[in-house]
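Subject: Sanity check before I submit

Could someone independently write out the structure tokens for this chain? I want to compare against mine line by line before I put it in a report. The sequence has 338 residues.
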Amino acid sequence: MKWLALCILGIFGIWVQAESAQAHALEPGYLEIAPMADQSWRVFWSRPDVKGRPMAIEAVLPEDCTPRRAPTPSFNGSAWTSGWVAKCTQGMAGGPLEIEGLAQTRTDVLVRYKVTEGQAHTQRLTPDETRFTLKAEVRRLDVMGVYLSLGVEHILGGIDHLLFVFALLLLITDGWRLVGAITAFTVAHSITLAAATLGLVSLPSAPVEAVIALSIMFLASELVQKRAGQPRLSERYPWLVSFSFGLLHGFGFAGALREIGLPQGDVPLALLSFNIGVEIGQLAFVAVVCALAWGLRRVAPVVIRTATTPGTSTAILMAYAIGAVSAYWFLDRLTGFV
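---
Independent answer below. Compare away.
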């Protein structure tokens, strides 16, 4: 079954190159609107960089606002930004806001706005939903829906977090131990997500992201050395390993949530909704992997048996593939702050 392992290695290699080439194009846009005096609003608009040019999307304010569009943007090293003051004679509330060109992309735009001096609201626009009506009051159900979807999207787009979970699935074959490990991972990252987002603890994001890559390398090492009848540390104490690394992954989730921001009046609800979204995405990923494994076991049992038997060339090459990708992430992230 060496061909299977070589295919997996090839897929990982292609994915790494694609991720590096498309990273900027898949980053979200960001629009912030805040009230000033005399029917004026301060607007900040950030667009991802695509091959040295701003992504072809444009924020368009309600019709009675002047100017409705951003001035010429400047590049800040990672994105193209514009700032201006818009005068809106009828106010912002009830007016439509649109992101032109978003339907032709694969990215999202996060809109954080205040139409009055009250609390800030967050809206997520996608290629399928490119406009919305600015509201003076936002229902708690709307807040929950926005942050729930953001949590799901973040975990499903966080390939490093998913690769960690996938490595756990390969490493821990006992059902109850696996449940315990996943539960410990969930509890741990929920603790640090809440603590970091609320400002109770703080760690710089760049080293955290590098150590998250190291956590995946550790599991890859455990997979390489795994042998029948000789349980590794992560197999003997899976909940302890998962909990320890889950604390680190929680800081990673918190970094993303801090960039999005939390509505001042509904911080607990938004935080809870985001965390539930992360868990929904994580459980969905586990369910898909288990379903694929079940299907392969029915149609090609030799493939599953070879890939999951400790010490086989296929199992070892799969572990090396996971280790190679995580090592690439570690070195790439390390150069970002060293």
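---
OP: Matches mine. For the report I'm noting this point. The chain has two domains: 29-138, 155-334.
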